[in-house]
Amino acid sequence: MHQPCWQFNRCPPERKYRCAAYPDHGYDCWNLAGTWHDGVYQASRQAKLSICQNCSFYQSENCRKETEHPLDYDQIFQLSRLMDEEPES
Hints:
Blueprint: H1 5-8, H2 13-16, E1 35-37, E2 40-42, H3 45-53, H4 56-59, H5 73-84
Antiparallel strand pairs: 1-2
């Protein structure tokens, strides 16, 4: 059974809920700005592509590589604001 990236990588809830991939892009997270890799926030899609290509999720059968839907700057701004907020308990 295929798993979205946050399950495959066992992301904690406080990271998962602040990620651009959650809840609709867990199979093509490599193609989005505003995701996480090893606990580090990846704001730029272009800057993270080389990181993603070496990621075990990207290399797995779970990853969907044919999609194209980069986030726009408004979405990145909103995600950045979420990063600055305290997580709900």
